Amino acid sequence: MSTNLDVALVVELRAAGVANAYAAGDPEYQPALLGFNRDISHTPEIVAVPHTVAEVVTTVTFANRHNLPVRVLGKGHGAQAPITDGIAIATDQLAFVSVDAETRTARVGAGATWTDVLSAAAPRGLAALCGSAPHVGVVGYLLGGGIGPVGRTFGFAADHVRSISVVTADGGLVRADAEFNQDLFWALRGGKGGFGVVVEVEIDLFPLATIYGGALFYAGEDTPAVLRTFAEWSRDLPDEMTTSVAMLRLPPLPELPEPLRGRFVCAVRIGYVGAAEDAEALMTPIREVARPLIDGVGEMPYAEIGRVHADPVDPMRVMEGGILLDEFDTAAADALLTASGPTVEVPLAAVEVRRLGGALSRMPEPPNAVGGRDAAYSLHVVGAPVPELLHSLIPQVIGGLFAGMEPWATGGTQVNFFGRANMPGDKVTSWSPEVAARLLEVRRKHDPAGRFPYPLHGEAI
Ligand SMILES: Cc1cc2nc3c(=O)[nH]c(=O)nc-3n(C[C@H](O)[C@H](O)[C@H](O)COP(=O)(O)OP(=O)(O)OC[C@H]3O[C@@H](n4cnc5c(N)ncnc54)[C@H](O)[C@@H]3O)c2cc1C
Predict the structure, then answer these.
(1) What 8-state DSSP symbol labels residue 160?
(2) Most buried among 110, 132, 406, 441, using CB within 10 Å?
(3) Does the model's pTM come out above 0.90?
């Protein structure tokens, strides 16, 4: 319900030049707030949908005048709490992609997805370092680091950002790069939120038309053997091989291949940058562990990288969480099987272990704020999208699973995999205490009044 005050504010913001600003009574208000995670409903006083950078500047200046908090909406994959006050800035209309094949770079506007970048880069034989789900927003992903299906070869996506343009709390448009505004450039690559509204990023592209990749799907009864083999096999891999294993409880959807429909399956995901023969030789232990239901690993166009994980694309209700691990040995595999293996009935859609390391563990030049570089594995758990369990049983089950994995945990999290099933106050563990302190310093310097709230210790947003 909009109040007279909200309506007056919207009228004033429109008059200031942001034509697409809406309060709760406007028919455009709800659709502008919708994101991937439909379990979260935002109710800010105003949602602004700027079409230009100048409109972003106007919106932030307006927020300063009225002392309103500002929060940024990308594609909603990382939404963690409802926005209940102030101004939400939806970035969809700022989206654009411009590829420069000569310098192998792309300029990408806020609101663009990796799918947009892949489509623009692929015809030039170039690849962009997206994550498992290309429909995720580019900016939100990069701000958190970005661990993708070829991450061990290239590192975090944030390691390959050349410049970032951001509207800061004083309403200024600032370019941060290796030379200018170095503190912001360091913080924005991995430090996630609370620094301003990123309007554009310039990223590296890579001459990579194909990879050897995809997924092997094993039957539920083969899961223990696959998980234990993965634990041993994944320990000593070359940087060319990026891999993960996931226990999936798949819904009975007609679009899924018949052997997977409505079943518990175990998927091993592969992203190999190099010769197919080398990848195949490397994969022998995994291929020999059992007969897969589907072997979908082979040479594939990089543009189809989303097939490796085949994450759900349609908006859904998400309750998720993640922790980082020092190690994933066969005892860790057994602990995971005890908590969520094929013989256990738990309302979990996906339990995924990604091998980190390789280039992900190396700090780029100039350094950035990406956390979790020293972890060997990440564990990410997504609850089943069952509305009546999402806020009761599912977070309890995920919490219990994390408790069972404590002997292997680093005690830290990775901010892109941090979710509502984590303890809210643990978000700060996405960075070392030194990096977290430096991020706070940068936030305080560029946003002394806290215009862009970014709770790290469980404070309300
Ligand atoms: C299906 C799925 C698969 C995923 N796979 C991976 C993966 O493989 N690797 C990985 O690293 N992560 C992965 N993620 C996590 C994802 O990268 C983050 O949730 C990311 O924040 C998503 O960006 P978004 O624009 O879609 O989300 P949003 O929820 O809209 O944005 C998340 C946060 O980012 C900030 N933000 C977004 N845009 C801006 C901007 N223009 N200016 C300032 N701040 C901004 C805001 O703080 C916002 O709250 C996945 C998530 C999902 C749901």
Answers:
(1) G
(2) 110
(3) yes
